[in-house]
Each structure stands twice: as structure tokens, then as C-alpha cells.
Write a structure and sequence with these properties.
The structure holds two protein chains of two kinds.
Chain A lengths: L1 H33 L3 H6 L12 H6 L10 H32 L5 H12 L7 H10 L6 H5 L6 H12 L3 H9 L4 H12 L1 H17 L2 H6 L8 H10 L8 H21 L1 H11 L3
Helix pairs in contact in A: 1-14, 4-8, 4-11, 4-13, 5-8, 8-11, 9-10, 11-14, 11-15, 13-14
Chain B lengths: L1 H7 L10 H36 L2 E2 L12 E2 L3 H7 L4 H35 L7 H13 L2 H11 L5 H8 L14 H8 L10 H4 L1 E2 L2 E2 H4 L5 H27 L3 H9 L4 H12 L1 H15 L4 H6 L11 H11 L3 H25 L5
Antiparallel strand pairs in B: 1-2, 3-4
The chains are: A mainly alpha, B mainly alpha.
Chain lengths: 282, 355
């Protein structure tokens, strides 16, 4: 029995080791090759040691090459403006709607709940052209509001918050009410603090989702001054730097765009694992 | 997952009658849900209705589609897509074919792989499970654009993947330039079919493509994109399976153990049947995701080589923004929607609980 157990453990670790190489390898290759010269990256793509070590690609990424326009600061600022606005907006909207659907009796509650569930069933890419139409019609094409507001539609977040508020014992709410607190105060001072874990979850999902977003910005903007980091990299890769050109630069940019999400991931790991599963209840 | 939901879903209906409070609640409820409802109406319902209208127009994206200046063409955009022979129908059929092969490879691969990962990181005898969970899930949270760039680098002609392949004596293909399908490569390579002189039944046409083209199989470029999605989405699906595995009562496993069941018997007889729900969920999500591939194509291949990585979503985008045919693009979006609904329904029917 112990022999078999040891054998099983050995096989398990071997599998995990192979898996780790496969899952982290591409990221290591990404970083390593961003520090290489173009010819070195082309001839030794698998090597993790840059020879010679070169910061040229990173210099280009930060705009030290006048031949190629990489407005990195603008991209990053845009990304943060949009991502933070979407995150804050979703936290407010989702928690309010979640609370209303979980705890307030009002006309149309059932219809709104059903509507939110139906929204979850609409595949995102189907909305590509429709979103362009509505933004154009509202005069919001090529504007920050056009980039931000449509991303505030977040059925998953609403349902997450609804579930969270339903789990708060009714007695706590009743106690607040007996103390004379109105709906708004009960919500802000009693319910929201109790739903903190779910708020963090919604916050993380929103941050990650809008930081990585491509399709919406692709149809919501055409002016380069609204490019986010993700959109900028995508358009550079599909446009001027198509094909095998300047891979170290593209990999440096890819690394850069991965960093913020990676940081959030490492800090909030626990919540990530929880939320993905609960958001899968579709 | 579903068990998780039912456990939480007990609705709090124990509220006494308080009439001033009722009024306050009604008002607050409407106010609190108003922003969400407004955003959904404005950026989801309205766009869908507008796009439905535009899909009936000949509209180039310039004028106001609601002023009557764009020509109303009824179902013409749809019949151009599905009925009349033309470039758009051929492209659409190609994109559907590509996606069918994509589904055929991606869904089983990602399901088996993520189930396997979940089984391994669920082993109690292994230490550091949390770390490995973190590692396997990491690709799932990074942007598809960044990953796309990196995979493009890995799959270059002289890239890392081919370097690894050459270590075992295989000469790797030039991934993003060879437009032949895998099935075509095999059939032509073994001399069973001569692509220059197709037999009659292979040359027969359907939806603007020959049978030979329908049966092409995925191109190596598409395989690279499939590899990327399998790699990047397996972490998410691993978590779904993991939560399913953790919902299996310990007593059930112990009972099987006491009965003297072998590891394999326990897996087949106990674990697998109890994981049915998780599996259905993962297959459904993977299937829906397969029909929506866009980012990777935009970054890595733009539909080439030979349109073998063209997907319906990408075609809808290029038809609208590239060719200025927004009516056609909108029509593709709705046909795509219908396809997804259909596939999900069929899949749900197969995966339903049989009592």
C-alpha cells in the first residue's frame, strides 16, 4: 500500500512538473525574449537567457524610438482611466441592483431578475456591431463615456451581489431598521460592509475584464488617442508590426500589459478562485 | 456548481407587513435597480433592436440608418449569407466550417485536460496544491491579446515550438502560412486524393464550398489558435471541475474504498457519474466560447492563411468595418446568435439528466 502510494505521489508530482513548465513556460519565454535583440530572438526563441542582454525593445516600448510611434503613456493612462471607472461604476451599480433584487419588494422585481438572467445568455461578440450602432446614434462614438458606459452592463456582477445580500441574516437588517435607519443607510452602513468579499470579487472581475477588453474598444473608437494598452498592442500587432517584425518589442508590450492583472491576481488570489466558479452559474 | 447555487438560493421572504415601510421599499427598490436597468436597456436591448433593423437595410455605416436614407432590403442580407452564391456566402460558409473543426478539437481537448488538472490538484496526498492551482489558472486571467502575441512568437516558422519539434526529429510546419487543412494534407500526402484532379463527389458544391473544402480539416494555423485557447481556458474550467470534485461527499468515496474498488473502478463508477453536472457545464461554456473566437484571430492571423482561421465573429467585424457592409455584418451577428442558441439547446438536450 505504501509502495503504491509513493508511486502515485511520484506520478502526481511528475505530472505537475510537466504542467508547470507548459503553463508558465510561455510567460518566461515572453519576458526572456523581450530582453533580446531582434536577431537573437529570431535565432534562439527557446533560450531563456538573452545573449546579449538588450533593453532596446523596452526602450522602444517606452517611446525612445522616433521611427515607430508607441504612445505608451497615453495607452496606459487610457487603460487605467477606463478600467478604474468601469470598476467603480460596476461596484456601485451591481451592489445597488443586487440589494434591490435580494431584499427590496418593489413592482417589477421579478421582471428585472428575469431580464438580468436573460442578459447573461447573450454572447458578447453578437453585440459588436449593435454597440457601434447605438454609440454612433447617441453621439458617443470616440469618447470615454462610450468606452466606459456600455461596459457597466454586468449581469454576472448583479447576480453575485444579489446572492451575497441574500445570505446576510434578515435580523441584522431588521435591527438597523428598528434603530430608525432608512433604506439608504441600512444599505450603506449595514449591508455593504457585510458583503465585502463579494464586492472584492466583483471589483477584481471588473478590473481584469476591462483591462483585457479588446472588442468593445475596437468598435467604440477609431481615434488613436483613445487607444488602451490592450487595443494599442492589438492594432500594432495586426497592423504596422504584422508578421515576424520586432518580436522583442511586441513581447515587451505584452509583458507590460500582463503586469497589472498579475499583481491583482497575486494579491487577491483567494477571491479569484472563488469568483470564477460563482460567475459560471449561467 | 448547481449544488452551490441551490444551497444559497433560499429567498428571504420573512418580512412582516409594514405599510409605510412598504412604500419606502417600493420607491427604494425602483431607484436602486434603475441604473442597472437603464444601462441594460441602453447598451444591450436598444443595440440589439437597432442591429435587427440594420440587418434589414443596405447601410454603409455613414448616414443615419433611421432617417430612411438607407435602402430597406428586407431579408436580402440574410439570403446573401445563406442563399445566393457569392463571396459573402462563401466566406460565411468557410467561417462556419472553420469553427466546426475548432469545436471538434477544442471542446473535447479542453474538457479532458481541465478535468485531468482538477483531478491532480485535488489529490490530498500532493503538497503545494494551492501553488499549482495558481499556476494553471494564471493564463486564464491574462489578456488574450498579450497571449496571442506570445503564441504568435512561439509558433513562428523558426519559433520555439518548431525548435522543440526538431529536437524529436520532426520538421515543424510554417504555422501561419500553410493554408491546407490537416485532412487534406493527410489525404494528399498518402496519395489517396490528387488535389489537382478531384473525383466528382469531392468537387461537388455545398454553400459555395466543395466537399473537398468542407472536409479539409483545420489548418495548422487554426491548430495553433486552438492550442492557445485550450491552454488559456483550461485553468478556468479546472476550477469548475474542482468545485464539482469537492462537492462529492467523502462518505461516497470511502464506501467505494471499503468495497475494495480499485482507483480506476472508483473513478469510473463513482467520480465520473457524480461529475456529470460539472462536465455538462464545462462543455456548454466551451462550446459557446468556441463560436465567439475573435481576439486571437484579430491579433494572430486576421483570418489568413487562405481564410482558414476566419471565424463568424471576425467576419462580422470585417464585413462591417472593413467592407462598409453593416447590414451584412449585423445579419452575420444574428445568424451567429441563432447558431449558438441552437448548439446550446442540442447540447443541453444530450446532457440532460435522465431519471
Amino acid at each position: 500500500m505504501t509502495g503504491r502510494k509513493r508511486y502515485a505521489r511520484l506520478v502526481g508530482y511528475a505530472l505537475l512538473a510537466v504542467g508547470t513548465v507548459l503553463y508558465l513556460g510561455p510567460f518566461l519565454i515572453q519576458v526572456a525574449n523581450s530582453l533580446k535583440t531582434d536577431p537573437d530572438a529570431a535565432s534562439h526563441p527557446l533560450s531563456l537567457i538573452p545573449d546579449p542582454l538588450s533593453l532596446v525593445a523596452w526602450g522602444k516600448a517606452f517611446g525612445f524610438d522616433t521611427a515607430l510611434d508607441v504612445p505608451l503613456v497615453r495607452w496606459i493612462v487610457n487603460s487605467f482611466v477606463v478600467t478604474l471607472s468601469v470598476t467603480v461604476g460596476r461596484l456601485v451599480i451591481d451592489s445597488m441592483a443586487g440589494y434591490a433584487l435580494a431584499r427590496l419588494r418593489f413592482p417589477g422585481r421579478r421582471a428585472v431578475t428575469a431580464g438580468v438572467l436573460a442578459v447573461m445568455a447573450v454572447p458578447g461578440v453578437v453585440l459588436l456591431i449593435p454597440k457601434f450602432l447605438v454609440l454612433k446614434q447617441l453621439g458617443m462614438f470616440d469618447s470615454y463615456s462610450g468606452m466606459i458606459l456600455p461596459l457597466l452592463c454586468d449581469a454576472v456582477g448583479i447576480m453575485l451581489m444579489k446572492t451575497a445580500f441574500e445570505q446576510v441574516p434578515a435580523e441584522l437588517e431588521d435591527a438597523a431598521r428598528i434603530d430608525g435607519a432608512g433604506v439608504l443607510r441600512t444599505f450603506a452602513e449595514v449591508m455593504v460592509p457585510l458583503a465585502r468579499p463579494s464586492l472584492i470579487t466583483v471589483g477584481i472581475l471588473s478590473f481584469q475584464g476591462s483591462w483585457n477588453e479588446l472588442t468593445h474598444f475596437l468598435v467604440a473608437t477609431s481615434d488613436p488617442k483613445y487607444q488602451t494598452l490592450t487595443l494599442g498592442i492589438a492594432q500594432l500587432t495586426a497592423g504596422p508590426l504584422q508578421g515576424a517584425q520586432q518580436f522583442p518589442l511586441k513581447l515587451a508590450l505584452a509583458t507590460l500589459s500582463t503586469i497589472p492583472v498579475a499583481v491583482v491576481y497575486v494579491v487577491f488570489q483567494r477571491h479569484f478562485v472563488r469568483n470564477q466558479v460563482s460567475s459560471g452559474i449561467k | 456548481m448547481v449544488a452551490l447555487q441551490t444551497r444559497r438560493a433560499a429567498p428571504p421572504v420573512h418580512r412582516r407587513r409594514r405599510s409605510p415601510d412598504t412604500v419606502r421599499q417600493r420607491r427604494a427598490g425602483v431607484l436602486f435597480s434603475a441604473p442597472a436597468v437603464l444601462v441594460i436597456l441602453l447598451f444591450l436591448v436598444a443595440p440589439m433592436l437597432m442591429a435587427l433593423w440594420v440587418s434589414l437595410l443596405h447601410w454603409d455605416g455613414q448616414s443615419n440608418p433611421f432617417s430612411g436614407s438607407a435602402r430597406f432590403v428586407g431579408g436580402a442580407n440574410y439570403s446573401e449569407l445563406l442563399g445566393h452564391d457569392g463571396l459573402l456566402r462563401r466566406d460565411f460558409a468557410t467561417s462556419v466550417r472553420n469553427t466546426l473543426y475548432y469545436v471538434l478539437l477544442d471542446v473535447p481537448l479542453v474538457t479532458v485536460l481541465s478535468f485531468g488538472l482538477a483531478l491532480v490538484v485535488n489529490q490530498r496526498i500532493l503538497r503545494g496544491r494551492g501553488f499549482f492551482r495558481t499556476v494553471f489558472y494564471f493564463p486564464s486571467i491574462t489578456s488574450s491579446v498579450a497571449i496571442g502575441v506570445t503564441f504568435l512568437f512561439l509558433f513562428q516558422g523558426g519559433g520555439a515550438v518548431n525548435a522543440i519539434l526538431s529536437l524529436v526529429g520532426v520538421q515543424g510546419p510554417s504555422w501561419f502560412t500553410d493554408s491546407r487543412g490537416l485532412v487534406q494534407i493527410v489525404l494528399a500526402g498518402t496519395g489517396l486524393v490528387d488535389p489537382g484532379h478531384l473525383p466528382g463527389w469531392l468537387a461537388a458544391q455545398g454553400m459555395g464550398l466543395s466537399v473537398w473544402d468542407w472536409l479539409a480539416g483545420p489548418s495548422v494555423a487554426m491548430c495553433a489558435i486552438i492550442a492557445l485557447t485550450v491552454w488559456s481556458s483550461s485553468g478556468t474550467f479546472m476550477l469548475f471541475f474542482l468545485s464539482g470534485l469537492q462537492n462529492i461527499p467523502v462518505q461516497v468515496e470511502e464506501a467505494a474504498l471499503v468495497d475494495g474498488a480499485s482507483t480506476w473502478q472508483r473513478f469510473r463508477g463513482v467520480t465520473l457519474p457524480l461529475m456529470r453536472r460539472s462536465t455538462v457545464l464545462v462543455v456548454t461554456l466551451a462550446l459557446i466560447g468556441s463560436w465567439q473566437v475573435f481576439d486571437q484571430v484579430y491579433v494572430m492571423s486576421q483570418g489568413s492563411p487562405g481564410k482558414t482561421t476566419l471565424t463568424p465573429a471576425y467576419l462580422s467585424y470585417t464585413t462591417s468595418f472593413g467592407d462598409g457592409n453593416f447590414g451584412g455584418g449585423a445579419a452575420i451577428a444574428f445568424v451567429l446568435f441563432a447558431i449558438i442558441v441552437l448548439f446550446t439547446a442540442v447540447q443541453r438536450w444530450f446532457g440532460r439528466e435522465r431519471s
